[in-house]
Amino acid sequence: MYEELEKRLTSLPKCADVVLDTDCYNEVDDQFALSFLLANPKRVNLLAVTAAPFLNQNSTSPEDGMLKSLDELRRIITLCGRSDVLCNTFAGSRDYLENESTPRISPAASEIVRLANLHSPQNPLYVISIGCITNAASALLLDPGIRDKVVYVWLGGHALTWPDTAEFNMRQDIPAARAVFQSGCALALLPCMGVVSGFTITAPEIRYWLLGQNEVCDYLGNIVLNGMRTLGDTPWSRVLWDVCAAAWVMNDSERFLKGELRRMPLPNAQYQYSKTEFTPHPIQYIWHVDRDALMGELITSLRSLK
Prior knowledge:
single chain, 306 residues, alpha/beta, 8-stranded mixed β-sheet, two-stranded antiparallel sheet, 12 helices
C-alpha cells in the first residue's frame, strides 16, 4: 500500500526541486543551510524560499520573527549571488495553527500548494522545513491532494530515546506537527537532541576553513564567532542543526545521513511522544549523521561561492 511513498523517501533525483521553509533569523544555522543549498545548483533546484514564524529572544512575536526571517533570507540569497532566487521569496504565517485542521493562509502556504501541483508522485516537490512546520502543514490543509506530490523533510523534535520532545521547532506548533504526521505525505524526520546534535563546528575550524574565503564564508563565520564571544574563554562548539535537513536531498547512497522507515508515535500537548497514537504510514526516521562527511561537503560548498 505504501510502496510509492517509501520509494519517494529512498530514491533521490539527481537534481531535486526544493522549497526551503526557514525561520532564518532565529539563530545561525539556517543561514548555513540556505547557503549550502544555494551553492549546489546541480543538485538542488531551489524554486522558493519561505519565511516561518518564530518567537524567542530574537523576536517580539511569531509575526515579527517571520518578517525578520524574510529579511535575513533575502540577505543571504543576495550574498550568495543568486538573484534568480531572490524574486521567489515568500512571507509565511503570522502565527501558529489554532488546531490540527484549520490552515493559516499565507503567501508561503499558497506557493507550496501551487508548486506541489506542478509535480507528481513520480517527480515530487521536496519541502525542507527548518523551523516550526506551520507553513508546510497549512499547505497540506489547504489542499490535501498535494500529499502524493510532495516529500516533506523536517528538522523537528528529539530522538525517540530522549525523555521529551520539547524541541524548539516542534513545541512552537504541536497542532502543525500532528497534522503533518497524520497527513499521509512522505515525511523524513531529523530529530535534534540525540541525532543531529552531533553535527557541530568549532571556532578553530571556522577560522581555518571559512574566514577569508569569500563574503559568504566571512558572514557565516562571524555570526557564529560573535555568538561564541559571549561565552568567554571556555571550550566551545556550535551545532549547525539545519544543515542536516538541507543535506537530506543530497544524501545519495546515505553518504551523510542514515535512517529507517518506521511508524512514528505522534507528539502530544505535553511535549511527549504518545504511547497510543501513531502515524498511519511509515516515515523516514534519521538516526545517524556522519559529521565529518557532511562537514567536509558543507565547507567545500561554501568556499565555492566566490
